[in-house]
C-alpha cells in the first residue's frame, strides 16, 4: 500500500474559473476520482480509505469539486460546476485520457464526461449514482433527508442523513460526524449546497428537468463507449438498486457488481470487496473489453 498523507498529497491547479484543489497519490496510469455530494463531503473523505491501495497501480488524482469547501467556490449550480471542472482539470494537467471512478454525483459527472468526450475516458467505475429509478419511489429516503438537513442544518439532521448512507450505523463514527459538521455548516459551503439541495431548489430542478426539451443524461447512456463497472450497495437508500438496471442494460460494455449488507458508500462500507472488484476491472487486459464482432 502506498503511504497516504493529507498534507503531502495536496495540490493546486489555477484555472480560468478559480483554483481547483486535489490530492495526488501513487504512480502509474492516471486515475481520476470524483466525489459525491451531501453535507460536508470532500473527495479526500470519500477516497482516503482506498487511495493507498489504488495508488500501488495508478497515479490517483482526487479532485475537489468547486462549491464543496475545498476548491474555490464558484458561482453556479454544484452539479454544473463539477462537470465543467473535469475538462479544465485534465487540460491543466496535460492529460488526454484517464480512467475515472465516480461516487454518487461523481458517478453521474463521470458518465456525462464519457458521453460528451468519449476519447478522454478509458474505463469507468461508478459507486451508486447514475441511472433512473424504475420501481422505487422518488425522491429516495437519503435525498429527502439531505434536503431536510440543507433546509435546517442541525446535528441531529446530519446524523439521520449519515445513517441513511450506510447499512451499518456503526460506520458513522463521532469523528466522521464532527468532520462533516464543520464543513457542512461553513456559511459559504452551506449557501452553495442550498443551490442544489434546499427543498425549493431541488423541486425547481426536478420541474425544470420534467419540462426541458434537452434529453436527460440517462436516455443517452448508450453513448458511453468506455467499459464501465457499476458498483452498488444492495441496501442503498440514496440510489436504490433498481437505478442500476438502466445503465447496466444501456451502456454497451457495462457490468454490475452488487455488494450485500452495504449502503451508498460501497468503497467505505465494503472496502475490501469493492477494491477487489475495482482493481480487477481497471487492471485487466484491454483485449477483454472488446465487443464481439
Automatic annotation (TrEMBL):
Q: Which UniProt keywords apply?
A: Hydrolase
Is Membrane included in the keywords of this UniProt record? no
GO cellular component, alphabetical, reads: membrane
Q: Which InterPro entries match?
A: AB_hydrolase_1, AB_hydrolase_fold, AB_hydrolase_sf
Q: Name one GO molecular function term.
A: hydrolase activity
AB hydrolase-1 domain: residues covered:
29-269
User: What is the name attached to this protein's record?
Assistant: Alpha/beta fold hydrolase
- What taxonomic classification does the UniProt entry list for its organism? Bacteria, Bacillati, Actinomycetota, Actinomycetes, Mycobacteriales
